[in-house]
Protein backbone atom coordinates (compact mmCIF):
# COMPACT_ATOMS: atom_id res chain seq x y z
CA UNK A 1 0.00 0.00 0.00
CA UNK A 2 1.23 3.48 -0.79
CA UNK A 3 1.39 5.85 2.12
CA UNK A 4 1.85 9.57 1.94
CA UNK A 5 5.02 10.52 3.80
CA UNK A 6 6.54 13.89 4.72
CA UNK A 7 6.87 16.29 1.82
CA UNK A 8 4.18 14.44 -0.13
CA UNK A 9 6.60 11.58 -0.90
CA UNK A 10 4.96 8.22 -1.52
CA UNK A 11 6.67 5.32 0.17
CA UNK A 12 6.40 1.63 -0.55
CA UNK A 13 8.52 0.68 2.46
CA UNK A 14 7.18 -1.03 5.54
CA UNK A 15 6.88 1.54 8.36
CA UNK A 16 9.65 -0.09 10.40
CA UNK A 17 11.99 -0.06 7.40
CA UNK A 18 11.12 3.51 6.61
CA UNK A 19 11.84 4.63 10.19
CA UNK A 20 15.23 2.94 9.99
CA UNK A 21 16.05 4.44 6.62
CA UNK A 22 15.10 7.99 7.56
CA UNK A 23 16.69 7.80 11.02
CA UNK A 24 19.97 6.62 9.46
CA UNK A 25 19.98 9.68 7.21
CA UNK A 26 19.33 12.02 10.14
CA UNK A 27 21.95 10.38 12.38
CA UNK A 28 24.56 10.64 9.64
CA UNK A 29 23.65 14.20 8.60
CA UNK A 30 22.91 15.85 11.96
CA UNK A 31 24.59 13.53 14.40
CA UNK A 32 22.98 11.13 16.85
CA UNK A 33 22.86 13.51 19.85
CA UNK A 34 21.17 16.23 17.80
CA UNK A 35 18.39 13.94 16.49
CA UNK A 36 15.27 13.27 18.58
CA UNK A 37 12.60 10.60 18.09
CA UNK A 38 10.29 13.52 17.38
CA UNK A 39 12.54 14.65 14.49
CA UNK A 40 12.49 11.11 13.13
CA UNK A 41 8.70 10.76 13.41
CA UNK A 42 8.22 14.12 11.69
CA UNK A 43 10.58 13.24 8.86
CA UNK A 44 8.81 9.91 8.34
CA UNK A 45 5.44 11.63 8.51
CA UNK A 46 3.99 9.61 11.39
CA UNK A 47 2.98 10.46 14.97
CA UNK A 48 5.63 9.97 17.67
CA UNK A 49 3.32 7.42 19.31
CA UNK A 50 3.42 5.33 16.14
CA UNK A 51 7.21 5.42 16.18
CA UNK A 52 7.20 4.12 19.76
CA UNK A 53 5.11 1.19 18.57
CA UNK A 54 8.17 0.06 16.57
CA UNK A 55 11.09 1.27 18.69
CA UNK A 56 11.41 2.11 22.40
CA UNK A 57 13.90 4.95 21.78
CA UNK A 58 16.49 6.25 19.35
CA UNK A 59 19.22 4.03 20.82
CA UNK A 60 17.19 1.02 19.71
CA UNK A 61 16.94 2.42 16.19
CA UNK A 62 20.70 3.04 16.01
CA UNK A 63 21.36 -0.41 17.49
CA UNK A 64 19.27 -2.04 14.76
CA UNK A 65 21.04 -0.02 12.04
CA UNK A 66 24.44 -1.02 13.39
CA UNK A 67 23.41 -4.67 13.46
CA UNK A 68 22.38 -4.46 9.83
CA UNK A 69 25.85 -3.35 8.82
CA UNK A 70 27.33 -6.54 10.25
CA UNK A 71 24.76 -9.30 10.95
CA UNK A 72 24.16 -10.41 7.35
CA UNK A 73 27.86 -11.27 7.10
CA UNK A 74 28.10 -12.93 10.50
CA UNK A 75 24.99 -15.02 9.94
CA UNK A 76 26.54 -16.56 6.84
CA UNK A 77 29.91 -17.51 8.30
CA UNK A 78 28.73 -20.94 9.42
CA UNK A 79 27.10 -21.64 6.07
CA UNK A 80 30.29 -20.48 4.27
CA UNK A 81 32.44 -22.74 6.42
CA UNK A 82 30.27 -25.82 5.85
CA UNK A 83 30.05 -25.21 2.08
CA UNK A 84 33.83 -24.70 1.95
CA UNK A 85 34.40 -27.91 3.91
CA UNK A 86 32.23 -29.85 1.39
CA UNK A 87 34.17 -28.34 -1.50
CA UNK A 88 37.51 -28.99 0.20
CA UNK A 89 38.36 -25.29 0.02
CA UNK A 90 41.20 -23.88 2.12
CA UNK A 91 41.33 -20.82 4.39
CA UNK A 92 42.43 -18.57 1.50
CA UNK A 93 39.23 -19.35 -0.44
CA UNK A 94 37.16 -18.90 2.71
CA UNK A 95 38.76 -15.54 3.47
CA UNK A 96 38.12 -14.40 -0.08
CA UNK A 97 34.44 -15.36 0.19
CA UNK A 98 34.09 -13.70 3.59
CA UNK A 99 35.66 -10.43 2.42
CA UNK A 100 33.50 -10.24 -0.70
CA UNK A 101 30.29 -10.88 1.27
CA UNK A 102 31.32 -8.39 3.96
CA UNK A 103 32.11 -5.73 1.34
CA UNK A 104 28.66 -6.35 -0.15
CA UNK A 105 26.97 -6.06 3.26
CA UNK A 106 28.67 -2.70 3.84
CA UNK A 107 27.86 -1.58 0.30
CA UNK A 108 24.19 -2.47 0.84
CA UNK A 109 23.75 -1.04 4.37
CA UNK A 110 21.01 1.62 4.28
CA UNK A 111 22.44 5.15 4.05
CA UNK A 112 25.92 3.79 4.62
CA UNK A 113 25.02 2.85 8.18
CA UNK A 114 28.60 1.63 8.73
CA UNK A 115 29.51 5.30 9.25
CA UNK A 116 27.34 5.24 12.37
CA UNK A 117 29.68 2.75 14.02
CA UNK A 118 32.22 5.58 14.25
CA UNK A 119 29.98 7.91 16.25
CA UNK A 120 31.56 8.66 19.61
CA UNK A 121 28.30 7.61 21.31
CA UNK A 122 28.63 4.11 19.89
CA UNK A 123 32.12 3.75 21.31
CA UNK A 124 30.90 4.61 24.80
CA UNK A 125 27.35 3.55 25.50
CA UNK A 126 26.65 0.10 26.91
CA UNK A 127 23.43 -0.05 24.95
CA UNK A 128 25.50 -0.61 21.79
CA UNK A 129 27.44 -3.46 23.35
CA UNK A 130 25.66 -6.13 21.22
CA UNK A 131 27.08 -4.39 18.15
CA UNK A 132 30.54 -4.34 19.72
CA UNK A 133 30.27 -8.07 20.38
CA UNK A 134 29.13 -8.79 16.84
CA UNK A 135 32.05 -6.77 15.49
CA UNK A 136 34.46 -8.69 17.72
CA UNK A 137 32.99 -11.94 16.45
CA UNK A 138 33.61 -10.85 12.87
CA UNK A 139 37.16 -9.70 13.63
CA UNK A 140 37.73 -13.07 15.23
CA UNK A 141 36.62 -14.89 12.10
CA UNK A 142 39.09 -12.80 10.09
CA UNK A 143 41.83 -13.51 12.62
CA UNK A 144 41.10 -17.27 12.55
CA UNK A 145 41.23 -17.53 8.75
CA UNK A 146 44.14 -15.11 8.44
CA UNK A 147 46.41 -17.00 10.83
CA UNK A 148 45.66 -20.24 8.99
CA UNK A 149 46.96 -18.56 5.82
CA UNK A 150 50.06 -16.97 7.38
CA UNK A 151 50.87 -20.22 9.26
CA UNK A 152 53.14 -21.52 6.49
CA UNK A 153 55.28 -18.36 6.43
CA UNK A 154 58.32 -17.78 8.59
CA UNK A 155 58.69 -14.14 7.52
CA UNK A 156 59.43 -11.42 10.04
CA UNK A 157 56.81 -8.67 10.19
CA UNK A 158 53.96 -11.19 10.22
CA UNK A 159 51.04 -9.82 12.24
CA UNK A 160 49.96 -11.80 15.28
CA UNK A 161 46.40 -13.12 15.48
CA UNK A 162 44.77 -10.02 16.98
CA UNK A 163 46.56 -7.51 14.80
CA UNK A 164 45.82 -9.56 11.69
CA UNK A 165 42.08 -9.63 12.46
CA UNK A 166 42.17 -5.88 13.07
CA UNK A 167 44.06 -5.16 9.82
CA UNK A 168 41.69 -7.30 7.74
CA UNK A 169 38.56 -5.73 9.19
CA UNK A 170 40.11 -2.30 8.67
CA UNK A 171 40.78 -3.07 5.00
CA UNK A 172 37.20 -4.24 4.43
CA UNK A 173 35.85 -1.11 6.09
CA UNK A 174 37.52 0.99 3.41
CA UNK A 175 34.11 0.59 1.75
CA UNK A 176 32.50 2.85 4.37
CA UNK A 177 34.79 5.78 3.53
CA UNK A 178 34.46 5.13 -0.20
CA UNK A 179 30.66 5.25 0.02
CA UNK A 180 30.89 8.47 2.06
CA UNK A 181 32.83 9.99 -0.82
CA UNK A 182 30.31 8.82 -3.39
CA UNK A 183 32.30 5.96 -4.91
CA UNK A 184 30.48 2.92 -6.30
CA UNK A 185 31.48 -0.44 -4.88
CA UNK A 186 31.93 -2.45 -8.07
CA UNK A 187 32.81 -6.16 -8.43
CA UNK A 188 36.36 -4.98 -9.27
CA UNK A 189 36.55 -3.20 -5.92
CA UNK A 190 35.28 -6.34 -4.13
CA UNK A 191 37.96 -8.45 -5.83
CA UNK A 192 40.75 -5.99 -5.05
CA UNK A 193 39.82 -5.63 -1.39
CA UNK A 194 39.72 -9.44 -1.10
CA UNK A 195 43.09 -9.79 -2.87
CA UNK A 196 44.57 -7.08 -0.62
CA UNK A 197 43.41 -8.99 2.47
CA UNK A 198 45.08 -12.15 1.16
CA UNK A 199 48.25 -10.17 0.43
CA UNK A 200 48.31 -8.89 4.01
CA UNK A 201 48.16 -12.59 5.00
CA UNK A 202 51.31 -13.19 2.89
CA UNK A 203 49.52 -15.21 0.19
CA UNK A 204 51.34 -15.13 -3.15
CA UNK A 205 49.71 -14.18 -6.45
CA UNK A 206 49.18 -17.75 -7.74
CA UNK A 207 47.33 -18.61 -4.54
CA UNK A 208 45.27 -15.43 -4.74
CA UNK A 209 44.26 -16.11 -8.35
CA UNK A 210 43.14 -19.63 -7.49
CA UNK A 211 41.33 -18.48 -4.33
CA UNK A 212 39.47 -15.84 -6.35
CA UNK A 213 38.27 -18.44 -8.89
CA UNK A 214 37.08 -20.90 -6.29
CA UNK A 215 35.56 -18.12 -4.19
CA UNK A 216 33.32 -16.98 -7.00
CA UNK A 217 32.01 -20.56 -7.43
CA UNK A 218 31.30 -20.78 -3.70
CA UNK A 219 29.54 -17.41 -3.67
CA UNK A 220 27.46 -18.66 -6.59
CA UNK A 221 26.35 -21.72 -4.57
CA UNK A 222 25.65 -19.59 -1.52
CA UNK A 223 23.39 -17.31 -3.51
CA UNK A 224 21.68 -20.07 -5.50
CA UNK B 1 55.77 28.43 35.09
CA UNK B 2 53.23 26.23 36.82
CA UNK B 3 49.64 27.34 36.56
CA UNK B 4 46.74 26.05 38.61
CA UNK B 5 44.18 24.48 36.27
CA UNK B 6 40.67 23.11 36.89
CA UNK B 7 40.48 20.57 39.69
CA UNK B 8 43.65 21.89 41.26
CA UNK B 9 45.76 20.19 38.60
CA UNK B 10 49.09 21.86 37.88
CA UNK B 11 49.88 22.23 34.21
CA UNK B 12 53.20 22.86 32.53
CA UNK B 13 51.60 23.24 29.10
CA UNK B 14 51.40 26.51 27.22
CA UNK B 15 47.80 27.82 27.40
CA UNK B 16 47.22 27.24 23.68
CA UNK B 17 48.44 23.66 23.97
CA UNK B 18 46.35 23.06 27.03
CA UNK B 19 43.20 24.36 25.34
CA UNK B 20 43.85 21.98 22.42
CA UNK B 21 44.50 19.03 24.70
CA UNK B 22 41.43 19.52 26.84
CA UNK B 23 39.15 20.38 23.90
CA UNK B 24 40.25 17.17 22.13
CA UNK B 25 39.22 15.16 25.17
CA UNK B 26 35.82 16.85 25.34
CA UNK B 27 35.15 16.51 21.59
CA UNK B 28 35.98 12.81 21.71
CA UNK B 29 34.05 12.09 24.92
CA UNK B 30 30.95 14.27 24.51
CA UNK B 31 30.91 14.94 20.78
CA UNK B 32 31.68 18.18 18.98
CA UNK B 33 28.10 19.50 18.82
CA UNK B 34 27.59 18.99 22.56
CA UNK B 35 30.77 20.89 23.55
CA UNK B 36 30.75 24.70 23.85
CA UNK B 37 33.72 27.08 24.10
CA UNK B 38 32.40 27.77 27.58
CA UNK B 39 32.74 24.10 28.50
CA UNK B 40 36.29 24.13 27.19
CA UNK B 41 37.26 27.30 29.05
CA UNK B 42 35.80 25.91 32.28
CA UNK B 43 37.62 22.61 31.92
CA UNK B 44 40.91 24.43 31.26
CA UNK B 45 40.23 26.75 34.20
CA UNK B 46 40.41 30.03 32.26
CA UNK B 47 37.87 32.72 31.38
CA UNK B 48 36.04 32.37 28.06
CA UNK B 49 37.56 35.73 27.00
CA UNK B 50 41.04 34.24 27.43
CA UNK B 51 40.09 31.31 25.24
CA UNK B 52 38.96 33.71 22.50
CA UNK B 53 42.40 35.30 22.65
CA UNK B 54 43.77 32.01 21.28
CA UNK B 55 40.92 30.70 19.10
CA UNK B 56 37.99 32.45 17.39
CA UNK B 57 35.60 29.53 17.95
CA UNK B 58 35.44 25.78 18.53
CA UNK B 59 35.67 25.04 14.80
CA UNK B 60 39.12 26.63 14.81
CA UNK B 61 40.17 24.42 17.72
CA UNK B 62 38.96 21.28 15.97
CA UNK B 63 40.59 22.41 12.73
CA UNK B 64 43.95 22.78 14.48
CA UNK B 65 43.59 19.36 16.13
CA UNK B 66 42.80 17.75 12.79
CA UNK B 67 45.81 19.41 11.19
CA UNK B 68 48.04 18.02 13.92
CA UNK B 69 46.97 14.48 13.09
CA UNK B 70 48.25 14.88 9.54
CA UNK B 71 50.57 17.91 9.06
CA UNK B 72 53.70 16.51 10.73
CA UNK B 73 53.67 13.69 8.18
CA UNK B 74 52.90 15.88 5.18
CA UNK B 75 55.55 18.43 6.07
CA UNK B 76 58.21 15.74 5.98
CA UNK B 77 57.33 14.20 2.63
CA UNK B 78 59.60 16.54 0.66
CA UNK B 79 62.48 15.98 3.06
CA UNK B 80 61.92 12.20 2.88
CA UNK B 81 61.93 12.29 -0.91
CA UNK B 82 65.14 14.31 -1.13
CA UNK B 83 66.93 12.13 1.43
CA UNK B 84 65.77 9.02 -0.41
CA UNK B 85 66.99 10.44 -3.73
CA UNK B 86 70.45 11.08 -2.21
CA UNK B 87 70.54 7.54 -0.85
CA UNK B 88 69.30 6.09 -4.15
CA UNK B 89 66.33 4.50 -2.37
CA UNK B 90 63.39 3.22 -4.39
CA UNK B 91 59.65 3.77 -3.91
CA UNK B 92 59.36 0.72 -1.64
CA UNK B 93 61.82 2.24 0.85
CA UNK B 94 60.08 5.60 0.62
CA UNK B 95 56.67 4.05 1.23
CA UNK B 96 58.03 2.18 4.23
CA UNK B 97 59.44 5.42 5.69
CA UNK B 98 56.22 7.34 5.02
CA UNK B 99 54.03 4.69 6.65
CA UNK B 100 56.21 4.47 9.77
CA UNK B 101 56.25 8.26 10.19
CA UNK B 102 52.51 8.51 9.58
CA UNK B 103 51.83 5.76 12.11
CA UNK B 104 53.96 7.70 14.61
CA UNK B 105 52.11 10.94 13.90
CA UNK B 106 48.78 9.22 14.56
CA UNK B 107 50.17 7.50 17.64
CA UNK B 108 51.37 10.86 19.00
CA UNK B 109 48.28 12.96 18.16
CA UNK B 110 46.92 14.43 21.41
CA UNK B 111 43.99 12.41 22.78
CA UNK B 112 43.91 10.33 19.60
CA UNK B 113 42.74 13.35 17.60
CA UNK B 114 42.56 11.18 14.47
CA UNK B 115 39.20 9.96 15.82
CA UNK B 116 37.89 13.49 15.34
CA UNK B 117 38.32 13.21 11.58
CA UNK B 118 35.42 10.74 11.63
CA UNK B 119 32.96 13.13 13.25
CA UNK B 120 30.00 13.72 10.92
CA UNK B 121 30.55 17.48 11.28
CA UNK B 122 34.04 17.18 9.79
CA UNK B 123 32.68 15.40 6.73
CA UNK B 124 30.20 18.18 6.05
CA UNK B 125 31.42 21.59 7.12
CA UNK B 126 33.43 23.75 4.72
CA UNK B 127 35.43 25.11 7.62
CA UNK B 128 37.27 21.78 7.81
CA UNK B 129 38.13 21.84 4.12
CA UNK B 130 41.86 22.56 4.76
CA UNK B 131 42.00 19.26 6.65
CA UNK B 132 40.24 17.50 3.76
CA UNK B 133 42.82 18.93 1.34
CA UNK B 134 45.72 17.90 3.56
CA UNK B 135 44.29 14.39 3.76
CA UNK B 136 43.92 14.25 -0.03
CA UNK B 137 47.52 15.38 -0.40
CA UNK B 138 48.65 12.55 1.86
CA UNK B 139 46.51 9.98 0.04
CA UNK B 140 48.05 11.24 -3.17
CA UNK B 141 51.57 10.66 -1.87
CA UNK B 142 50.57 7.09 -0.99
CA UNK B 143 49.02 6.63 -4.43
CA UNK B 144 52.15 7.97 -6.18
CA UNK B 145 54.55 5.70 -4.31
CA UNK B 146 52.19 2.72 -4.42
CA UNK B 147 51.73 2.80 -8.18
CA UNK B 148 55.51 2.99 -8.67
CA UNK B 149 55.78 -0.24 -6.67
CA UNK B 150 52.93 -2.08 -8.43
CA UNK B 151 54.17 -0.89 -11.85
CA UNK B 152 56.28 -4.01 -12.44
CA UNK B 153 53.37 -6.39 -11.82
CA UNK B 154 50.96 -7.60 -14.44
CA UNK B 155 48.68 -9.33 -11.92
CA UNK B 156 44.93 -9.03 -12.14
CA UNK B 157 43.30 -7.52 -9.07
CA UNK B 158 45.88 -4.73 -8.87
CA UNK B 159 44.30 -1.58 -7.45
CA UNK B 160 44.28 1.50 -9.67
CA UNK B 161 45.99 4.68 -8.46
CA UNK B 162 43.07 6.14 -6.49
CA UNK B 163 42.00 2.89 -4.87
CA UNK B 164 45.60 2.10 -3.93
CA UNK B 165 46.04 5.46 -2.19
CA UNK B 166 42.75 4.92 -0.37
CA UNK B 167 43.69 1.38 0.73
CA UNK B 168 47.11 2.47 2.02
CA UNK B 169 45.73 5.41 4.00
CA UNK B 170 43.04 3.12 5.39
CA UNK B 171 45.66 0.61 6.55
CA UNK B 172 47.70 3.31 8.30
CA UNK B 173 44.59 4.63 10.03
CA UNK B 174 44.18 1.27 11.75
CA UNK B 175 46.22 3.03 14.46
CA UNK B 176 43.29 5.31 15.29
CA UNK B 177 41.01 2.39 16.11
CA UNK B 178 43.77 0.59 18.00
CA UNK B 179 44.41 3.63 20.19
CA UNK B 180 40.65 3.95 20.84
CA UNK B 181 40.74 0.40 22.15
CA UNK B 182 43.72 1.10 24.38
CA UNK B 183 46.39 -0.71 22.34
CA UNK B 184 49.97 0.55 22.40
CA UNK B 185 51.52 1.37 19.04
CA UNK B 186 54.86 -0.40 19.35
CA UNK B 187 57.74 -0.47 16.83
CA UNK B 188 56.54 -3.98 15.90
CA UNK B 189 53.13 -2.54 15.00
CA UNK B 190 54.80 0.20 12.89
CA UNK B 191 56.83 -2.40 11.01
CA UNK B 192 53.84 -4.66 10.39
CA UNK B 193 51.61 -1.86 9.14
CA UNK B 194 54.42 -0.75 6.78
CA UNK B 195 54.97 -4.34 5.57
CA UNK B 196 51.21 -4.75 5.06
CA UNK B 197 51.15 -1.60 2.91
CA UNK B 198 53.98 -2.96 0.77
CA UNK B 199 52.17 -6.31 0.47
CA UNK B 200 49.04 -4.51 -0.77
CA UNK B 201 51.36 -2.98 -3.42
CA UNK B 202 52.35 -6.54 -4.45
CA UNK B 203 55.91 -6.31 -3.11
CA UNK B 204 57.42 -9.70 -2.30
CA UNK B 205 59.00 -10.61 1.03
CA UNK B 206 62.65 -10.15 -0.05
CA UNK B 207 61.85 -6.64 -1.24
CA UNK B 208 59.95 -5.87 1.98
CA UNK B 209 62.84 -7.07 4.16
CA UNK B 210 65.31 -4.91 2.26
CA UNK B 211 62.98 -1.89 2.27
CA UNK B 212 62.53 -2.23 6.04
CA UNK B 213 66.32 -2.22 6.61
CA UNK B 214 66.96 0.77 4.43
CA UNK B 215 63.91 2.59 5.82
CA UNK B 216 65.20 2.40 9.36
CA UNK B 217 68.51 3.97 8.27
CA UNK B 218 66.65 6.77 6.51
CA UNK B 219 64.41 7.40 9.51
CA UNK B 220 67.56 7.57 11.60
CA UNK B 221 69.00 10.30 9.35
CA UNK B 222 65.68 12.18 9.34
CA UNK B 223 65.60 12.24 13.11
CA UNK B 224 69.29 12.99 13.58
UniProtKB/TrEMBL annotation, chains A, B:
Record keywords: DNA-binding, Transcription, Transcription regulation
GO molecular function: DNA-binding transcription factor activity; transcription cis-regulatory region binding
DNA-binding feature ranges: 36-55
Domain HTH tetR-type positions: 13-73
InterPro entries from the UniProt entry: Homeodomain-like_sf (IPR009057), HTH-type_TetR-like_transc_reg (IPR050109), HTH_TetR (IPR001647)
Transmembrane residue ranges: none
UniProt protein name: AcrR family transcriptional regulator
Organism lineage string: Bacteria, Bacillati, Actinomycetota, Actinomycetes, Propionibacteriales
Amino acid sequence: MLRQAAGGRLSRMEPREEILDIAAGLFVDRGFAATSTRDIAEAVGIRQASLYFHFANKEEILGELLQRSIRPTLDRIEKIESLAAEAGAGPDVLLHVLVVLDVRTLAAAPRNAGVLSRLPEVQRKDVFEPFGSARNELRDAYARLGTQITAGHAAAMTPDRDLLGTLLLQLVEVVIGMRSHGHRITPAVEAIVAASCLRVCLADQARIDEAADRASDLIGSLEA
